[in-house]
## 1
Amino acid sequence: MNKQEHDILLEKYLNGTSNLKEEQLLREYSLQYNTFEKDWFSVCEQHNKKRIGLQSKIWQTIEEQENTKHRKKYIFWQAAAVCLLLIGSIWQFKKHKKLENQKLAVLEEAIMVLSENVKSDAPQIIYEDDLIVLYSE
């Protein structure tokens, strides 16, 4: 690139009509031949580096906030699952306890009937259940 081409590219750059390829050529020429715009391009590069660093920090913050939202959702669903398990366990325990009390009442009734009917010599079935069979003596 000669001085005249440099001046044309510089004019386009200052007017804002240059494209990226022309700006890159102008930047390389300025750095290679120590022209007066060398300092300007150095400042622009530093500004771009800071801007890129700021953009990455912004994205990082956004991602952290999104992750926090997802964690809160998971915590909510985990708490709901624990509550359902707890309620189901209590319900099963009460149901089992009720059945046990019913069987105990039937057994006590059978014992009372047995004590009243002891007069017979042959063993007789007094009460029969899925788990219990009571005979008289």
Note: The CA atoms of residues 99 and 105 lie 10 Å apart.
## 2
Amino acid sequence: MGPLFRSRARELRRPQVFPYVIMLRMAKLLVKQTSDDDIDALAKLQAEVYPRMESWQRDQFLKQLEVFPEGQLVAKLGGRVVGCASSLVILWDEWADEYSWSQITAAGTFKTHNTSGMTLYGAEVFVDPRLRDGFRYCGVISRHSGHRPSLAKP
């Protein structure tokens, strides 16, 4: 993936108002900043969402939280992790369209995060496959994270 959107970096550095509580079909969906306690469930869910791909390791999630905690969101339904959105800030001028997701995100470590940047790069959005039909949780998570589709190469 590689959703992109332009944003004002100063706003990204301000504390965000979390959590969002959204009512969907009589179920409460909680979208909040990711915490250390969410990581094991996120890794397990990512393995379910992408069964043919190696999921991120715990230390990779921790590094993302260390680098840019405000850009890491988790969605919970009934206390269970059902989705996530991960992002980092970059100076888009340093990157051209021919760069890959792996290059832009430093293989998911977010070492390329730059607080002087003006672009929020959506590195990942995934939702529990059992909830994709009918509920549109991915769209809710995306709206709260600011992720928008792009033509960036995976």
Note: Helices lie at 9-13, 39-49, 58-67, 101-104, 132-135, 137-145.
## 3
Amino acid sequence: MDLLKGKRVRNKLGEEILSDNALVRKGILIFFFASSWCPASKQLASKIKDFYHRAQHEGVEACLVSMDLEASKMYEFMRESDLPFLALEPQSEVALSVIARFDVHKVPTVVATDSEGRVLSRDDGSDVEGCCARAMETWRKLTK
């Protein structure tokens, strides 16, 4: 996805990696906008994680976009939720550009995009499984 192309992101261990390497052969990128202080974000984290485990072999990657003010809060949230996917540090240039690109004003929010950055589906956390399933269905149609 162009928005992350050449950018540095964090993996589940907190190590800085180049997004291009992490997104090779990925057709769908699910952005999970969340905050450590938000109970709904904490509840949704397990659903996103479950979907990710089921769909990662089908070309899905997920990325936490932390709306926290401190990176330490994001890492704590990732550890507590056992999130196995990428993350953008709070207040970083790339995180702020992704937040602006998708016009996110509340947490939790889930935005599923294709590899070109086109929005396949979007959800406020009320139907994340449906959101992700719709994204997969749309992506499959586009790639046939």
Note: The first helix runs from residue 19 to 22.
